[in-house]
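Encode chain A's predicted structure.
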Amino acid sequence: MQNDRIMQIKELIAKDLLSIGAVFLRPDEPFTWASGIKSPIYCDNRLTLTAPVARNDVENAIAETVKREFPDAEVLMGTSTAGIAHAAISAHILGMPMGYVRSGNKDHGRQNRIEGKLEAGQRVVVIEDLISTGGSAIEVVDALREAGAEVLGIVSIFTYGMQKGLDRLKEANVKNISLSDFDTIVRIAAETGYIPESDIERLIAFRNNPSDESWITK
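Encoded structure for chain A:
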């Protein structure tokens, strides 16, 4: 039953992200990442904030996931800036305190990096919008650990499922649970006619090795 519910959430969030244009799949006209890598996918989960139905699904799914996967959580901490609103709304649903972690210390005032009250030993779940290589999320986890928090894990809206990200999270001993993922998005996109079935192989090839651009010519 639990696995069925997890799959329901994955499919629901995938449909929401596609329906509001938060995820674009465009293998014939790839996007270019800042790193220079060509990508058939572009993801902007911030758009969920301006789409009330999708936003409601996302925040309730985050709250449900926190309760299921991290029942001992005491505080939610959003990543700056994309995870802040999601942490705030889902914390409101759960009746829990929240805060957020800046990308660096403020250069004025108390020079905080962690905003919101956090006591040493508190059990924290990080709320993130997107996991790709995992680097930025792990930096947030490290900052919280340095402040004395016990980081139980991460709940993210979407993950590419790239091997580099999986390896980094494992090395950092960080558990990540994503509401939806690349494979589910691709499958739902094909089932709903958003992309042709013939594009699935190309998209999975990109996911498996983003630096190999041979999928572009397949």
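The first strand starts at residue 23 and ends at 25.
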